[in-house]
Amino acid sequence: MVRFDVICGTSTGAIIAASIGIRRKSVEECEKLYRELIGKVFCKGPMATPKMVLTRAYYDSKILESVLQRECGKGVFIDSTAEEGMPKVCVVSSKLGTSDVTCHTFRNYTYPVGSESRFAGTPDAQLWEALRASSAAPTFFTEKLLNGTLHADGAIVANNPTAVAIHEAQSIFPGIPIELVVSMGNGLAEPKFVDLWKEGSKDKQLGWYDILDSYIYAAVQTEDVHHMLVELLPPEKYFRFNPKTRCAGIDEVRPEKLVEMVDDANRYIEASGERFRRLSEILKPRGMRHFWNQISYAIGMEVRYVQNLFDPVFREEEVATES
Questions:
Q1: Strands 88-96, 6-10: parallel, antiparallel or unpaired by DSSP?
Q2: Pairing mode, if any, of strands 101-107 and 181-184?
Q3: pLDDT one-digit tens code per residue, 274-299
Q4: In whole angstroms, what is the distance from residue 86 CA to residue 91 CA?
Q5: Is residue 1, in this structure, part of any structural domain at all?
Q6: What are phi and psi of 241, to 5 degrees?
Q7: What pTM was estimated for this model as a whole?
Q8: Burial of 207 by CB count in 10 Å (0-12 exposed, 13-18 middle, 19+ buried)?
Q9: CA–CA gap between residue 250 and residue 303 (Å, rounded)
Q10: What's the pLDDT score for residue 253?
C-alpha cells in the first residue's frame, strides 16, 4: 500500500486524516464512523434555539466528545510515532485570541535540528482533544479550551489546509523536493449570490443575512488555495479532487440528501477517471525515488546535526584567535 509521508486535515478532514493516518482505519470504516457520528451528534431538539443563545452552539458538544473519546482513547499525538511506518499527521485548529485568530497545528512529530514551522502547535495533546478542537464549528459546537487557550474549527483559518501541509512537509524534510500533493475536498457547492439589479427588483440593498452569508463564504471557501497551487506546482505533482455537489449543510442528516451527495461524488469519480488513472501511474514508481530521497534526507540531517554541534566551538575558537 502506498503511504503518504504527511497527512493534514481540518474539521471533518481532521477526523478522516487521524482515522486513516494514525488509527489506520479503512475508507469503509471511516464512512461507517461518519454516518454514526452525524446520526448521534446532529440531533436538534426543540430547545436548540434557546441553547444557541445560552451556549453559542446548536448541538451538544459532549456527544461529539464521547464519540471521539471512544474512537481515540487517551492516546497522545506524539505517542503514535512508536508504531512502525507511521506517517506525519497534523490537524488544524483556529487559535482564538483577544484581537486575532491564528493557525494552530496538533501533530505527531517534531522538527529536525535547525528547522521549525511558522505555525504554532504541539505534539503533546490527546488525539481526541485535537480533533474536537479542529471540528468546533462556530454555532454548531462550543469552542474547545486547551491549556488556557480557546480553539475553534480549523476552517476559520485554513478550510483548505493543503498549503499548511506543504509548509509542514518542507519543515519536516528540509531540502527534500516535494514529489506529490493530493488534495481532497468534501464538496464544492455553487454559492448563491443575490442579484440586486435584476428586472423588477425593488430593493437595491443587501439584508444582514445576505451580508453575513457573504462573509462566511469568503472566510471558509477553499478554491483560492487550489488556484494558487495550480499556478505554483506542475500538474504531475498536484492533484485536487473536489466534486460539485448540491447545496447541503454540514449538519445534513436526511437520508435522501445523503444519497444525493453520494451520487454526486460517484458521478464526479466516474467523470474524473482519467485523472485518477494518471495519479495511480505516478504513485506506482514512487518507491525507489522515495527511497533515495529518504537516504539523501538522512545524510543531510546528520551533516546539519554535526554542524550545529560543532559550530559554537568553531565560533569560540575564532573569537579567541581574533582577541
A1: parallel
A2: unpaired
A3: 999 999 888 876 554 555 555 555 55
A4: 15
A5: no
A6: -125, 120
A7: 0.79
A8: exposed
A9: 48
A10: 85
Which domain, by its residues, includes 12?
6-283
Location of C-alpha cell 506529490: 180
Helix (H, G, I), strand (E, B) or coil at 273: helix
Q: Residues 125, 36: one domain?
A: yes
**CATH number of the domain within which 113 lies:** 3.40.1090.10
Q: What does the pLDDT average to over 260-284? A: 91
**Total domain count, the chain:** 2
Write the pLDDT tens digit of every residue in 61-77.
Answer: 999 999 999 999 889 99
Residue scoring higher pLDDT (22 or 247): 22
Annotated catalytic residues are 11, 153
- Residue 5, all three cell numbers: 509521508
Q: Are 170 and 268 contained in the same domain?
A: yes
- Do residues 188 and 305 both lie within one domain? no
Cell output for 223? 478554491
In angstroms, the CA 250 to CA 92 distance is 18
Over its C-alpha atoms, the chain yields an Rg (Å, rounded) of 23
Q: Are residues 99 and 147 in the same domain?
A: yes
For residues 179 and 173, the answer to whether their CB atoms sit within 8 Å is no
Gap between the Cα atoms of 65 and 41, Å rounded: 9
Phi, psi of 184 (to 5 degrees): -115, 120
**Grid cell locating 15:** 477526523
Q: Are residues 116 and 150 in the same domain?
A: yes
The phi, psi pair for 122, rounded to 5°, reads -150, 145
How, if at all, do strands 238-241 and 181-184 pair?
A: parallel
Q: Are residues 186 and 275 in the same domain?
A: yes
Residue 138 has what DSSP assignment?
Answer: T
**108 and 77 in contact (C-beta within 8 Å)?**
yes
**Which pLDDT score, from 0 to 100, does residue 309 have?**
52
Buried/exposed code over 235-257 (b: 16+ C-beta within 10 A; e: otherwise): eeebbbebbebeebeeeeeeeee
Q: Are residues 306 and 263 in the same domain?
A: no
174 and 307 share a domain?
no
